[in-house]
Amino acid sequence: MTETSEIDPAAAPSGPGCLECENDGGWWFHLRRCAACGHVGCCDSSPAQHATAHARSAGHPILTSYEPGEYWFYDDRTGTASEGPDLAVPRHHPEDQTVPGPASRVPGDWVQRLH
Fold first, then answer.
1. Residue 1 CA to chain centroid, in angstroms?
2. Over 80: is that where the pLDDT of 47 sits?
3. Does 15 score more than 90 pLDDT?
4. Where are the domains of the chain?
5. What InterPro entries does the record point to (predicted)?
6. 1-87 belongs to which CATH class?
């Protein structure tokens, strides 16, 4: 995937965790970052699925992993993964951040709550 109007390499991530889960007191499994605006949301396995909801409501279909060691782009329209340009740092959440997270809000039965 090449740089397009749907990818802004200069857009900084919105924070170290899912923006909506942080505001609502929720938790996430893995994190995804919007390649257009930097919004960080929780993945589709997470209870709230905020990353895809953002992609669809904002019209920003390109997501990328916000996990350490993962560097891929995903097009929500086509369901295809590919490589893409370098994005503004940080490229992932802090390495000492728990998965799932944040640790203080993850319920004991979290595995049963995944999609």
1. 18
2. yes
3. yes
4. 1-87
5. Znf_RING/FYVE/PHD, Znf_UBP
6. alpha beta
